[in-house]
Here is the input.
Amino acid sequence: MPTLLVLRHGKSDWDAEYGVDAERPLAKRGRRAAKTIGRHLAYVGPEPTLALTSPATRARDTLERVLEVAGFDCPVHIVESFYGHGTVAVLDELRGLDGSPEAVLVAGHEPTWSDLIATLTDSYVRFPTAALARLDLDAHWAEVQPGCATLTWLVLPRELEASRS
Here is the structure.
């Protein structure tokens, strides 16, 4: 059965110059956290066979750093509905996946990601910036529905960094 990796964008830089919210860049802390998560994902896997991301700069840049540090090279698709359209839009996108990818990495925002995890696993988790969760699905992509997944793990960059010291 497939695996869904859920990645929230890293800490963004509210003081940077940007036009609209979708253009807000990552802060230094967000860039560092993305690298930490990339190292972790390279170590524990699975390697994603497809990545989907919000069009927001901070989500795209977080995903790019995670994949680069992990050494993963999978197709990346920007999904407009991952920015501000909620859980239903994400579920619709997942149900429409072609080719039955084994592991899909999605990058986006709160509160959508904690709502998505709650919907798929029947449990609520706090999902801070640059967190990464692994959900193992009990259904194929076309059959994704509430309660069809198990939350296998959730990691936070600050916990990974603390364990290294």
